[in-house]
Design goal:
mainly alpha; two-stranded antiparallel sheet; 69% helix; elongated; 256 residues; single chain
Length: 256
């Protein structure tokens, strides 16, 4: 697995180098930073089908939430019966792996990109991407290293953190809006944990960006902003309102 990732990182590295050379006439000294953004966006564009099916899986979970809550209420004193009923429900609905599998399939791509933009060397050679700069801040620099967080380089990082935080706030807000509107359905422990993670995780990206090279921070900003825009577009285009009597109001119908 690691050998596959190393080879993929090497391929991705050469693609970004080529992109940087192509973008020099348009972006000048910002060519490498622009190439990182373009490469990240290009990979995310290729992964759109997986993101769509992941949203379908999440919509299926939302649609089943009232039934799951009712089963938990009805069989609260009989855990064995509850597990059988839940297993039968998930089996009838084709299981919930369809919602998790697209997310798992995306992980190798994200791992390759993250390693590319934070590794000091690629295929045994220095990572030339990190030798370039963004507005005077080296792409291989860390926020707490070099001149320090209060320097001109530190200000570039602070601007990056502010943008990531803004995207995180918008993502958390969108996640809250995307939750089912069926207030009569009590949330179980798993649902509460999922909701809490959806609120907190976008902001953790800021903490991660504070300890990785600027190039990796730029990748994190691009991919989180893409995720926010992608979910907004896919929900508008793919989510269908439930037909009267077919499902509780506010629950997405992506599995039609």
């Amino acid at each position: 697995m690691l050998g596959f990732l190393d080879a993929a990182v090497s391929v991705a590295y050469h693609i970004v180098i080529v992109l940087a050379h192509v973008l020099v006439p348009l972006t000048g000294g910002l060519a490498t930073a622009a190439a990182i953004v373009a490469f990240t966006a290009g990979i995310r564009l290729l992964l759109v089908p997986l993101s769509y099916y992941a949203l379908r899986g999440q919509a299926k979970q939302a649609r089943l939430a009232p039934q799951v809550a009712e089963l938990r209420r009805r069989h609260a004193r009989h855990p064995d019966r509850l597990q059988r009923e839940l297993a039968e429900l998930y089996q009838r609905e084709g299981g919930l792996l369809a919602g998790c599998l697209p997310l798992l399939l995306q992980l190798p791509f994200f791992t390759v990109m993250y390693r590319l933009f934070r590794s000091g060397s690629v295929a045994g050679h220095p990572n030339a991407l990190l030798s370039h700069d963004l507005l005077g801040a080296p792409l291989g620099a860390h926020w707490l290293g070099g001149p320090g967080p209060a320097s001109g380089q530190g200000l570039v990082f602070l601007a990056l953190f502010a943008l990531i935080a803004a995207v995180g706030w918008a993502s958390a807000r969108a996640a809250r809006r995307g939750q089912p509107a069926t207030s009569q359905v009590p949330a179980d422990a798993a649902s509460r944990v999922t909701a809490a993670l959806a609120t907190v995780l976008p902001y953790l990206t800021v903490a991660i960006a504070a300890f990785v090279p600027l190039a990796a921070g730029l990748y994190l900003l691009t991919t989180t902003a893409w995720t926010l825009a992608e979910r907004s577009v896919l929900r508008r285009r793919a989510v269908r309102p439930a037909a009267p009597g077919s499902a509780p109001a506010g629950i997405a119908r992506l599995d039609a």
